[in-house]
Amino acid sequence: MLRLFRRNLIDIETHISLRFSQYPSLKSISTTSEGDETSKASDFKVSYFMNSFGLSSNSALKASELVVLKTTENADSVLLLLKNQGFTNAQIAKLVSISPRLVLLNPDKNLKPKIDFLRGAGFSTPDLTHIISSNPQILNSSLEKRILPAMGFLKGILGSDKDIISTIKNAKWILNSNLNELMRPKIAALQDHGVPAYRVSAMIKRNPSAFLSRSDRFSEALMIVKDMSFDPSSSLFCVALATVVGIDKSIREEKMELYGSFGWSEDDIVSAFKKQPQIMAISKSKIKRMMDFFVKESGCGLSLVSRYPNILLLSLEKRIMPRYSVTRVLISHGLLNRDVNFVTIFMLKEAKFLEKYVIKYQENVPQVMLAYQRKT
């Protein structure tokens, strides 16, 4: 009897299974329903981010994956606050693309106090909106634990609100950094090496990112600059330090090799660097174009660049080549000596060059204006 019961039970289960298999959609009806709801919610968020915050479809999709948005009430309030504070549509889109979770923050408790504080510190609306949209992390940072201490630290070092604002504009992430931990040891190291306080302040204002770098990287750069015998009391010491800190060792070595390929020895490169440290900050492509022009095309020669490396910082297309062309035209007409000082010509302010070498001769030698106008 028991055996018969089991057999009947198996037959019933098999029958039910076979009948159920004829309608496969019944198996997934619950899963499909849940999937549809999830898909609808995701589509809604994507559409909302695109239509309300101006995000691209890709950015909106990424934002929708990061944000749980049951209603739009809070996000709408965030949007209204940003618009009322002077953020442009493009800035709002940029801000939310970088940090989508900002739409979940309480606009009155989390966002407005920080914006009001920065505005009260002297930031104009254009500066304020640019800094925040470039670094939304400011709005995620604690006003009491991060922003206020950072502003206080900068105030103690730089003094004036104008200098503080200038510094923050040069390193927009500085307000969400622990400056006491990052900057104070580096400032102390510079002072220990004989860098005057006013030089340190000037370096912080111009190159704050150097003080936000890793401690080991800063220390290594400091030793490199010291070994080159830069005078710690000079502005060039700080320029050299900021330059070395800002460039990876491998990139520095590649640039050394590139300069060397044009005939400079290592001593020549160091000598040029000591005159103008920023020759290591320009891109490799620009180094090649500039050195090609001076060494191979113009005939100015490597010695000219060695003596006056500042010219490597000028624009080849907009300054060097047009002025060189004008000079060659004037030489060909006997209006300038062949041994003219090209460096003086290259370094002249635009208005002065135009007056002295173009306008003065354009009536008798129209080619000078044509040569000058070939700027790209």
What is the succession of H and E elements? Answer: HHHHHHHHHHHHHHHHHHHHHHHH
Shape call: globular
- Main β-sheet description: none
Mean pLDDT: 88
Strand content: under 5%
Radius of gyration, whole Å: 32 Å
Short note summarizing the structure:
Keywords: Transcription, Transcription regulation, Transcription termination, Transit peptide. With 376 residues, the protein is mainly α. Helices cover 70% and strands 0% of the residues.
Characterization of this structure:
With 376 residues, the protein is an all-alpha fold. The chain has 24 helices and no strands. Keywords: Transcription, Transcription regulation, Transcription termination, Transit peptide. Belongs to the mTERF family. GO terms for molecular function: nucleic acid binding.
